[in-house]
Amino acid sequence: MYGGSTPALLEGGSTPALLEGGSIPALLEGGSTPALLEEGSIPALLEGGSIPALLEGGSIPALLEGGSIPALLEGGSIPALLEGGSIPALLEGGSTPALLEGGSIPALLEGGSTPALLEGGSIPALLEGGSTPALLEGGSTPALLEGGSIPALLEGSSIPALQEKTSCSSVPGAYLAGGRSWRGVRDGGREEEVQTAAAVARRE
């Protein structure tokens, strides 16, 4: 940081000296970091004069044709904010294309499309097992957590059963696949061998 090398901190001697314009060459021709941000160059801060002026639409070219950040978010361009006019209008389904065919964010979440919200009709219907495919074969989220599948919840049969057999906050999935036992810590820190429900059932 103080000029040991790279070569001699890109010829500026130290980081403070470099930021004051020592080099890279002469801090991209702007003299110092403050001077650079106030317009020194890169070239002339992408033609906008300064960071505030740039954000007010000085250029890149003319802030992607929208004049300023507020104007851009109101639909100035990129092109015409992905054809939806403004962020609120876009979220109401103006386009991209027609907000992935669902009309609006609320309509989309109710199953308008993408395609037909992954075939489940709506978020509630999807979580109840409408599809993706049939909520990974478990029928519904509650049924899935009770061991419906993925396959048979990594063979631990259910989240409660899995936690009951392990009494641990988490169990590596590689150990659960196949129902192998895992040395874990439970009961206030005592280490002992715990097993998945599948391993217990297989042994019995």
Give the tally of β-strands: 2
Q: How much is the average pLDDT? A: 50
- Kindly state the percentage of residues in helix: 40-55%
As an assembly, this protein is single chain
How is the main sheet built? 2 strands, antiparallel
Organism: Homarus americanus (American lobster)
GO molecular function, one term: translation elongation factor activity
Protein name: Transcription elongation factor SPT5-like 5
Biased composition (Basic and acidic residues): 184-193
How is this fold's topology laid out?
Elements: H1 7-11, H2 15-19, H3 25-29, H4 33-37, H5 43-46, H6 51-55, H7 61-64, H8 69-73, H9 79-82, H10 87-91, H11 97-100, H12 105-109, H13 115-118, H14 123-127, H15 133-137, H16 141-145, H17 151-155, H18 159-166, H19 173-176, E1 182-186, E2 190-194, H20 197-203
Antiparallel strand pairs: 1-2
